[in-house]
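Page 47, continued from p. 46.
Same chain as before, 307 aa.
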Amino acid sequence: MEFKHISVLLDDCIKGLNIKSDGIYVDCTAGGGGHSSEIAKHIVNGRLIAIDRDPDAVDAARNRLKEFSIAQVVNANFTQIEMVLDELNINEADGFLFDLGVSSHQLDEAKRGFSYKHDAPLDMRMSKDGLSAAEVVNTYDVSALAKIIFEYGEDRYARSIAAGIGKARSESPIETTSQLAQIIKASVPAKARRSKNPCKQTFQAIRIEVNKELDAVSLGLDSAFKRLSHGGRICVITFHSLEDRLVKQRFASWCEGCTCPPDFPICICGNEPKARLINRKPILPSQEEISANSRSKSAKLRILEKL
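Result:
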């Protein structure tokens, strides 16, 4: 299946990165190479490093970027940013881009097991390696499942859904997305099924757990900021509140200055901000973009510049 992914907030990301023709830029989530190829067009004698943990995305990005001699694609998790840069003898970069969440290709390719809309083996592994969704669903304690669904899926029916999973798997293993979807639907009140598809939040929660997404985002942001040059920028696109909250708080911590009590006549802490926000409120997709790509609806872009 061809790797298809529509780049979200593309023009805003390119503008936000403030690309220098001789700069070094890292696309930490290359996907199909959409953002990367546009970044590459603005680089003359600099470098572009495109990273992705998904082997399919790496193949697609390499094909799309083959015309750009300044571009290099690396199969790695963005938690490994520092290792990747060290291996390429790069001390720091002028910009980092993170397009978080699952790609259109991963959702649309049934066999990857990300979507409740397709019947497929429960997988959800972005890297195609390690712990699978089936292992999470069939081996985690019911209490642990409830915690994951509540915290990562923000679902009020987390305990009921986890109990339903526990009961079903005691009879036979849960192996497919359709099996899990039916269990979720049977575990929530009828009114919850009428208002929206009740599977969305639980599938999101399990996917986040399988790929350790929030831990990865935290580590990836810290690594990027550490290796960001002064005046360089980080652009992050998020697609749900958990990611956005994490990014917002991390950015705020880097922008924080004096922490002395307000009644102190002079600053004695000596703390100075390490960065500044380019946009205080997140940049959202236009109605035109949403109409062209419905999956962009929940996207939020935040941009930070290192001082």
